[in-house]
Amino acid sequence: MSLHLSQAKPSSTAYLVLGLTALKAPYCGGVIVPSLELAPIPVAVAASGEALVDVITGSTPPAAIPPAFSQVWVQYWIQDRASACGPDGLVGSNALLVEF
To answer: Which pTM was predicted?
Structure first.
């Protein structure tokens, strides 16, 4: 499975956040949906504003996901200096719940 990001700030850095549960915490004018048990994955955003991350092959969850969990929350957070959060501000994408 791939997670495609589009309409992000061109040539920026995005972070793919994965969580085993939903945190749903307000942050920078948005909401961080995934809980933060797993380290964010930095992703380069192309000049087109798109990024693609292959997360899962087949129906097997990534090794970072404990076997007892059959789902994971995913969301991109993109660096955008023009955001309301200051010079290192972040803007969140929609979140998805991925079930295995």
So the answer is: 0.83
